Every structure is written in structure tokens, then in C-alpha cells.
């Protein structure tokens, strides 16, 4: 008998239990165990129905994602689930937690499904660059219809049990203990003389509309998932459910799965799956270190950022006190928060009662004494060192012993801020991204004296408020903005040389960035970066062309979207960006005035200059120990900077291009462009010359 899959028979009901922590993934031992049990059941006559249950926190949460890299050993998921489906007696799955991917596919291969009322069921394979490859593309359309099945996989979002019932994905939602309910369901089937109801035998209910559905889904994918292969292949595989016999559909699914599993898209997305979790593993945070409790939070600054951060805590039921200099600021801030929540209510993602209960958790004051019982205070005012120092001195005076003092600075020296307090070990950077209530990234900046329990508390807190927390050490711009600096510099410089903003952003967006860098500046406000450079003069080289476009725009008060003009114009009724000939002319004239050599970079050069400059800076961050792992940088860029997940993040992307290729290009740019900016980072040079990769560097040194 397998350790992870066990079989017991009581009162002629067989119970198959999968017990493989943490998430009962369908790894080789689980598959081998299930194969043995179902082979065994095929030869037994001492049971009338079977129930499949999982121990622990969840039903099977999918295939073992790591196994795709090492190679999937038999039994293959498809064959195994066919074996389950072929069982001569009815098989009932009991779903709790998150049935995902191969877990949902196992459930669909069972003949009936009972779900716990809190269960969530989904097929998130596209988020890993693959398709459901364990029969899911053929069984889901047979069970719930082609269109609904396409929705389930293309959205990637698991549906709650009630919705699954409505779709026909499950047969019953259990009011109480799901395992007991599944057992009762099995007994009822036996009593009613019902046999197996195999999904493979069901007809696709909307097959007559297949052509229409497929065309619409192809159009959806081309529009919303460009540059990717797996979504189109998914549509192709699912379409087969409506036109081919089950066995032929399965064969197509297997062929497509094999092609996709080893492609860059899937490798990139698997890399990020593990990288997103690896960020929590920090050397020095040992098991004996305990996080501090966060029962009440103070936010300093009722602006957009402070309000967004306050919402993060109110959303999880933690009371927040917001401090600002005037009642007027505080009331304006509260008004913006309420408006944000009202938008959620109108979209149906929040109820009116939830809105009120969240607003009820927010209090305001102009007096720092209101924070005397706060466990954490986060300063979110503008980037002025003197102002921040003053705030930290006040916080130091009122916060209780053991409270954590956080700053949302994006560029300033946290150690300098910490030095103004008597408790630098309790000071940490908590760099949220705007809008803070939406963006999933949180850079956690570990100062020279930040204690390990404060760091652990910040990592735990990030998870609680549903953010991906990535630790950075202190430097100008930390991980994200420091790498953004050369990226933006090159983009701006190319405009001075003769490119248009649309050339730059078009190339970047066509490649997959959510938004081109110049459009991002327009959205954030051009003055934001400019103020940062003013606040950090030591970071500005002696180069009149450095970020000159931004400086010119600020001088003209063309600050981006909010003023109707920046790199682009925003004055059409739909407020969509449009080229601004006046701005383009001004920038090209400025390039000439500054003797910037004129050139019209093509798409490849735009991408190389933007991405390779960023990657080179990333290599420096690794060498300096600012970022712990190349994969941490990838998480920062995909979670916070719109870098396409299917390219794996800048450092993974660099590995796929080849570090030698990038190194050679940087050397070439050092000769043809401004040599000050194009010197390969020593780490990049070393890895390139030894034929190595950032992934190998992570594996050998980064841990
Ligand atoms: C699939 O099924 C393909 C098939 O269609 C076809 C096959 C041919 N594999 O996230 P957590 C680990 S593709 C391996 O921190 P939570 C995870 O790395 C799969 N490991 O917990 C972590 O390890 P560590 C489709 C996995 O409570 C630990 O478990 N399924 C897997 O916040 C805890 O995870 C998915 O995409 C896995 N499948 O969230 C679901 N899942 O402690 C992926 C988890 O060493 N999983 N681990 O860092 C999830 O979405 C979340 O883990 C889940 C729990 C919601 C289940």
C-alpha cells in the first residue's frame, strides 16, 4: 500500500484517501498510489461505490509543477484519470479547499462531485503557459458546455462552490462536513441503483454553436493574450471536444501539452510560480524567530498613497488611524477612499455593508498621540528627507515599545531615516506601488539595522494583505526603481535622438510590457521622477541630456495625463493618448541643441537598449547584494512593473536570450552610444564569459 494514497472499505463504500502535504499535488507517488488503488478496486467485489477524498487543507491542487522540468514519469495523468473514470462502480469526489488543474481534472474523471461550501474549483493552467493536459480540455466542455469551459480556463479564475453547482461542475454543495456528505451521496446512488455517469460519454451541450464560440474565443485570445501560444492552443484543444470522439480529443490534448510544456512561455511561468514563493525564504529568518502582531496600524499622509495603504489593512479587518496636518486633508483622503470602495460596490465586488464596515475601521487625527497603541506606522508623505526625519522623530516619541516604523519612500536612504530614531532595529521600508490597494508588489526594504523579526513581520503582513513582498537592501531606488532608471534614461534619450514616444512605447508594448515607459511616466506624473532626481542630486550624472525630456515637460507644466499633456496629448473625449507633434518637435530640437547624435532606432534597438540596460543594472544589484536572487528581481518586475509573465521577468528573459549575446551588445553600445552608460556589469561579464546563467548563479550563490 502506498503511503500517500490509501484505501479502506466500510459498509461497502470504498474510501480512497490522498494524503500528500502541502497541497496533495499529483506528483509521481500520488499517481502511482492512485493507479494501484484503482487497479485494485477493478478486481474487487466488496464495494458498491467509491469516494475520493483528500486529507489536509485542500483537495488536489494540481499536477506537481516542478515535475514538468524533470520529466513526467508514468503513469501519466491522462491514463490515470481514464482508469479512474473506467471504474465499474460509481465514484464520488469530495472537494474542499482549492481543487485546481489536475485536481479538477481528477474530479471530472470521477462520476459525481460533492463540494464543500467554501471550496473553489478551477483550471489555472494558462497561468503556467500550458493547457489542462489530464483530460480537462475534453471533459470540461462535456460537463459544463464548451463556452463555459472556455471561460473557466481562459479566465484562470477558480469558481466558488455555489457557482460550480450552477455550472454543473459539481452535483451538490455540502452544508457541513464534505467527506460525510460525499459518503452519503455515494450511499444514495447505491440505494437508487445508479451506476457510473462517465463524463467522457456526455455530449457537449452547446456543440451546435461551436463554430461561433471558437471564433469569438480566438478573437478574445488574439486581443488579450498576445504574443502567447498556450491560449490559442487551448482553444484548439477544447474545440476538439465538440468535433472529435473523446479518445481522439485526448490524443490532440496530449500532443499539444507536450509541445507547450517545454516552450519558453511555460518555463517562464513555472519559474515565476516558484520565484513568487521563494521570495519569502530569507537567510537569517530562522524557525525560532517570531513575527510581531499587527492589530492596529497608523498611516502618516492622507494622500493617494496613504489612502491606498490604509485600504489594504481595512480590507483585512485591521483598524487604521490616518494622520495628516489638517482636517481638510484627512476628510479629502477619507472621501477618496470611500469613492474607491463605492466603485467596488457598483462593480459588485463589495457589498454596501462591507463598505461601511471597512470605512468604520478608519479613524483620522492630526495628533500623533492617536498612534500610542499602534503596532505599525507607515509614513506615506512626499519624498523629502527632512520631512520624513521629522515624522520619524514624532513617531519615535509616541509609538509603544515593539511597534514597527515603516516608510513608503521609493528612493531615500532608510538607514538615514532610521538613525533619527532611538530604535533603528524597528525601522523598515515598505514601498507600496500606486494604486496601493490594487498593485500586488510590496518592496520590503531591510535597513542595515532592521531586526529579523521586523523583516519576518513585514513578509507575513505582505501575504495577509495579499501582496507579494520582495526584500531589497538599501540603495537608491531599491530594486525596482533603480532598474527603471537606466530603462527610462534610454527611452528618453532615444526621443532626443529622433524617435517618437509612440515608437518607444509601441515597441515595448508590442513586445509585451503592459505599458510603455513613457506612457507610464505620463500616468504617474512626469514631475514624480523629476522630483526624485532633485531629491537625489548625487544620482544625476554630469550630462545635460540625462532625463532632459522630463525636465522640459515639467518646465512647461506638461505633467502627463492629469494636465492633458505629457509625452502624449490626452484631450480627446475618450482621454486616450495621442501623439503630440509640438512635444515631439520640442524634444527633437532639444536633442539637436545638445548635440545628441541623431538616429532613428528600430524596434530591435529600442528593445535592446531598454531591456539590456535594465538587465545590466539587475546584475549590479545582485553583485552588491541589494537583491538576494535574480528570481527576486523577476518577481519585482512582473508584480510591479508590467513585465510580461510569459517572458519570466528581466533576468529569466536574459537567460533565454543568452548572457553572451547581451554582454556583446552592451560592449557594442559602449562603442556606438554614450560609453558612460554602457559598461557591462562585472557579474554579467563573468557569467557571459563562462557560458553561465542568472538561474545558475541563483542556484550556486544566491541561496
Ligand atoms: C496542472 O495541473 C497541469 C495538468 O492540467 C496537466 C498535467 C499533465 N505543484 O502557494 P502556497 C507548493 S498544472 C508543486 O504557498 P497557499 C508551493 O510551491 C497545476 N508545488 O500555499 C509551496 O511550497 P513551499 C495547476 C506546489 O495556501 C507550498 O506548496 N495548479 C503546487 O498560499 C504551499 O503553496 C496550480 O496552478 C503544485 N501544484 O496556496 C495551483 N501547489 O512551501 C498552484 C503548491 O516550498 N498552487 N505548491 O514554498 C496554488 O495556486 C496555491 O499553492 C494554492 C495554495 C492555492 C493551492
Automatic annotation (TrEMBL):
GO terms for biological process: fatty acid beta-oxidation. Belongs to the enoyl-CoA hydratase/isomerase family. It comes from Paramagnetospirillum caucaseum. It is found in: Peroxisome. GO terms for molecular function: (3S)-3-hydroxyacyl-CoA dehydrogenase (NAD+) activity; enoyl-CoA hydratase activity; isomerase activity; NAD+ binding. Pathway: Lipid metabolism; fatty acid beta-oxidation. This is Glyoxysomal fatty acid beta-oxidation multifunctional protein MFP-a. The lineage of its organism: Bacteria, Pseudomonadati, Pseudomonadota, Alphaproteobacteria, Rhodospirillales. InterPro entries: 3-OHacyl-CoA_DH_NAD-bd (IPR006176), 3HC_DH_C (IPR006108), 6-PGluconate_DH-like_C_sf (IPR008927), ClpP/crotonase-like_dom_sf (IPR029045), Enoyl-CoA_hyd/isom_CS (IPR018376), Enoyl-CoA_hydra/iso (IPR001753), NAD(P)-bd_dom_sf (IPR036291). It catalyses: a (3S)-3-hydroxyacyl-CoA + NAD(+) = a 3-oxoacyl-CoA + NADH + H(+). Residues 296-473 form the 3-hydroxyacyl-CoA dehydrogenase NAD binding domain. Keywords: Fatty acid metabolism, Isomerase, Lipid degradation, Lipid metabolism, Lyase, Multifunctional enzyme, NAD, Oxidoreductase, Peroxisome. CDD domains: crotonase-like. Transmembrane segments: none annotated. Its main location: other. Residues 477-570, 606-691 form the 3-hydroxyacyl-CoA dehydrogenase C-terminal domain.
Amino acid at each position: 500500500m502506498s503511503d500517500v494514497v490509501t484505501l479502506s472499505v466500510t459498509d461497502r463504500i470504498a474510501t480512497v484517501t490522498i494524503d500528500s502535504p502541502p497541497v496533495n499535488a499529483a506528483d509521481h507517488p500520488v499517481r502511482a498510489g492512485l493507479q494501484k488503488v484503482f487497479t485494485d478496486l477493478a478486481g474487487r467485489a466488496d464495494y458498491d461505490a467509491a469516494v475520493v477524498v483528500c486529507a489536509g487543507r485542500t483537495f488536489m491542487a494540481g499536477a506537481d509543477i516542478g515535475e514538468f522540468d524533470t520529466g513526467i514519469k508514468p503513469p501519466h495523468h491522462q491514463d490515470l484519470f481514464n482508469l479512474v473514470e473506467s471504474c465499474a462502480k460509481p465514484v464520488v469526489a469530495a472537494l474542499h479547499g482549492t481543487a485546481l488543474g489536475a485536481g479538477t481534472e481528477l474530479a471530472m474523471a470521477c462520476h459525481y462531485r460533492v463540494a464543500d461550501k467554501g471550496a473553489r474549483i478551477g483550471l489555472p493552467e494558462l497561468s503556467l503557459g500550458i493547457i489542462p493536459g489530464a483530460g480537462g480540455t475534453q471533459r470540461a466542455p462535456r460537463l459544463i458546455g464548451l463556452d463555459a469551459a472556455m471561460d473557466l480556463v481562459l479566465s484562470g479564475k477558480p469558481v466558488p462552490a455555489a457557482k460550480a453547482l450552477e455550472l454543473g461542475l459539481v452535483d451538490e454543495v455540502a452544508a457541513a462536513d464534505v467527506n460525510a456528505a460525499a459518503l452519503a451521496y455515494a450511499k444514495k446512488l447505491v440505494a437508487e441503483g445508479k451506476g457510473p455517469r462517465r463524463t467522457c460519454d456526455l455530449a457537449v451541450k452547446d456543440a451546435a454553436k461551436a463554430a461561433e464560440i471558437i471564433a469569438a474565443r480566438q478573437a478574445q485570445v488574439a486581443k488579450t493574450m498576445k504574443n502567447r501560444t498556450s491560449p490559442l492552443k487551448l482553444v484548439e484543444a477544447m474545440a476538439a471536444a465538440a468535433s472529435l470522439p473523446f479518445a481522439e480529443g485526448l490524443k490532440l490534448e496530449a500532443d499539444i501539452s507536450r509541445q507547450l510544456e517545454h516552450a519558453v512561455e511555460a518555463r517562464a511561468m513555472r519559474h515565476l510560480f516558484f520565484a513568487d514563493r521563494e521570495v519569502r525564504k530569507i537567510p537569517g529568518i530562522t524557525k525560532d524567530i517570531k513575527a510581531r502582531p499587527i492589530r492596529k496600524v497608523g498611516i502618516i499622509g492622507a494622500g493617494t498613497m496613504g489612502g491606498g495603504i490604509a485600504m489594504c489593512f481595512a480590507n483585512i479587518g485591521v483598524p487604521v488611524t490616518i494622520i495628516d496636518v489638517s482636517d481638510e486633508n484627512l476628510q479629502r483622503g477619507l472621501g477618496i477612499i470611500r469613492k474607491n470602495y463605492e466603485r467596488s460596490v457598483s462593480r459588485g465586488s463589495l457589498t454596501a455593508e462591507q463598505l461601511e464596515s471597512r470605512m468604520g475601521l478608519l479613524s483620522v487625527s492630526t495628533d500623533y498621540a492617536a498612534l500610542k497603541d499602534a503596532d505599525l506606522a507607515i509614513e506615506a508623505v512626499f519624498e523629502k528627507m527632512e520631512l520624513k526625519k521629522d515624522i520619524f522623530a514624532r513617531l519615535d516619541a509616541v509609538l509603544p515599545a515593539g511597534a514597527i516604523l515603516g516608510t513608503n519612500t521609493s528612493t531615500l536612504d532608510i538607514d538615514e531615516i532610521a538613525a533619527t530614531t532611538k530604535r533603528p532595529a524597528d525601522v523598515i521600508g515598505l514601498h507600496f506601488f500606486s494604486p496601493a490597494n490594487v498593485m500586488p508588489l510590496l518592496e520590503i526594504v531591510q535597513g542595515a539595522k532592521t531586526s529579523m523579526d521586523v523583516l519576518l513581520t513585514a513578509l507575513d503582513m505582505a501575504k495577509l494583505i495579499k501582496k507579494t513582498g520582495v526584500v531589497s537592501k538599501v540603495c537608491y531606488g531599491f530594486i525596482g526603481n533603480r532598474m527603471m532608471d537606466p530603462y527610462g534614461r534610454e527611452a528618453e534619450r532615444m526621443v532626443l535622438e529622433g524617435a517618437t514616444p509612440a515608437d518607444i512605447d509601441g515597441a515595448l508594448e508590442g513586445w509585451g510590457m503592459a505599458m510603455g515607459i513613457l506612457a507610464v511616466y505620463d500616468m504617474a506624473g512626469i514631475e514624480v521622477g523629476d522630483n526624485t532626481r532633485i531629491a537625489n542630486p548625487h544620482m544625476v550624472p554630469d550630462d545635460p541630456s540625462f532625463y532632459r525630456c522630463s525636465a522640459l515637460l515639467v518646465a512647461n507644466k506638461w505633467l502627463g495625463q492629469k494636465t492633458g499633456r505629457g509625452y502624449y496629448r490626452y484631450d480627446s473625449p475618450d482621454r486616450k493618448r495621442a501623439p503630440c507633434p509640438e512635444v515631439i518637435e520640442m524634444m527633437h530640437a532639444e536633442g539637436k541643441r545638445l548635440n545628441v547624435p541623431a538616429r532613428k532606432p528600430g524596434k530591435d534597438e529600442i528593445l535592446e537598449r531598454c531591456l539590456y540596460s535594465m538587465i545590466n543594472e539587475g546584475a549590479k544589484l545582485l553583485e552588491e547584494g541589494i537583491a538576494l536572487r535574480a528570481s527576486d528581481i523577476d518577481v519585482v518586475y512582473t508584480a510591479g512593473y508590467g513585465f510580461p509573465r510569459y517572458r519570466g521577468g528581466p533576468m529569466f528573459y536574459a537567460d533565454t536570450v543568452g548572457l553572451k549575446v547581451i554582454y556583446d551588445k552592451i560592449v557594442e553600445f559602449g562603442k556606438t552610444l554614450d560609453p558612460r552608460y554602457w559598461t557591462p556589469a562585472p557579474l554579467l561579464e563573468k557569467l557571459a564569459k563562462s557560458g553561465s546563467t542568472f538561474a545558475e548563479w541563483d542556484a550556486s550563490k544566491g541561496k
